[in-house]
Amino acid sequence: MFQAKGCEVMLENLTDYPYSSARRVVMGQQGAVATSQPQAAIAGMEMLLAGGNAVDAAVAMAIALTVVEPTSNGIGSDAFALVWDAQLHGLNASGKSPQTLSPEHFAGMWQIPPLGWLTVTVPGAVSAWRKLWERWGKLPFEQLFAPAIRYAEEGFPVSPETARAWKRAADIYLPLTAPEFQPFKEVFFPSGRAPAVGEIWCSEVHAKTLKAIAQTGGESFYRGELAQAIASFAANTGGILSKSDLAAHQADWVQPISTNYRGVTVWEIPPNTQGIATLIALNILEGYDLSQYPRESASSYHRQIEAMKLAFADIHRYVADSNFMEIPVEYLLDKAYAAQRRSLIGKNAIALAEPGLPKGGTVYLAAADSELMVSFIQSNYSGFGSGILIPDTGIALQNRASGFTLEAGHPNQVAAAKRPFHTIIPGFLTQENQPLGPFGVMGAPMQPQGHLQVVANLVDYGMNPQAALDAPRWRFIAGNTVLLEQAVSRNIALALVECGHNVQISAEPGMFGKGQIILRRGGVLVAASEPRADGLALAW
């Protein structure tokens, strides 16, 4: 093991890094917020300025994101959170599959369909908002909904990245003709097309539903009129999600999992999420003195990619709902096991089976004040989700059942009342039992890869938070195929090819994730937002 450069290097001498990165670093003392949409970040700051805390800000941002970035999340999403309040708490608000779901529903299929009722599990985002607020919120619950309701009623200009995602989604959702997809198209494609950049979009049905959730503390969604509307639409259009499925849902407090990487402890939510992949890969990578190689070098890229490939091979085989896992988390995180896996890495790329994880749509946010720090993530899964929207509600349902496998005997095999494998993972950093802060990178299988690269940038290369997000990225796809951003030098790409990697260059920023970071140094909060998204970091 090699000595870490330490968290001090992450935050000092900001001007040592490229001007563009240092210029965008945001610093404050009282509070900070960062997420992928400026309107949502402003919603969080509104709560802080009104006397709320970081949890109030985080929940307000999460609610606002369901309106201003519907291409990635919605009222019918799932969610996870990590919260620091002198210790770290984990919240798993992901929903289970319907109680009557069985493998027989997928007879003749080779994978879970990405659209329609069979891909819907119980949505958990609303329960996450309520659970977090109950434990830490200072402001009235209804107040947290005010910005989102305002955006839904008055409209907002659609941002560039969201408009791009909306336009891509049109090719998927507009051709759908079954009755269950029509309400979705009426709300999100009312003119038969996606809104353009800067076009004002609003949704009265979103506002109406958010008001009902606010006024009932979320009860309407799981046990009241909204729950009845969801169950009735399912019954009328071939779905099996029932009112009893919704009523049985609960968000669970869980013990976060971690590993120590060169003196910095990296925290993730335990399975059913893929956060453990980041920790496995970091354990493997820890055996190399990564800092001896330049950040922009094939030697550094190769070792990170290979560690990630080995981690994906493990999680694809073993990770599922924690109640169904056959291999304990402790075994997968064992340092001796990591050394065994590290011995498989050589000069040439390892050929591995595909991890089998599809592309996804997710939003991440971070918030902090003088006492609390929040890492929060919510997602539909793939783009807009299942394509099912409950009439007159704005509730677009996620397609999280796509995370299951149909492989018989696999711990993640589809079954009744079971949480699927989840791609969304909030992250958190501590050092010597003190918080550094929340971080996250969106993008389905890119998420643990993004976490790995951000941690290496911070710890091994001493980058400040904004520089750590700005730096060029790679993305392992399957087998020996790896995508590189255009900013990666040609020399690195050629050297990786010589190592046996099948290198492809991608100009699509969405392929490499979208993230945010807030780190604390003494009494100063340093916030940064992903340059690949439309996001914003604010601090005061």
TrEMBL record:
InterPro entries: GGT-like_enzyme, GGT_lsub, GGT_ssub_C, Ntn_hydrolases_N
Highest taxon of the lineage: Bacteria
Pfam families tied to this protein: G_glu_transpept
Signal sequence bounds: none
Transmembrane segments: none
UniProt-recorded name of the protein: Gamma-glutamyltransferase family protein
Organism whose genome encodes this protein: Funiculus sociatus GB2-A5
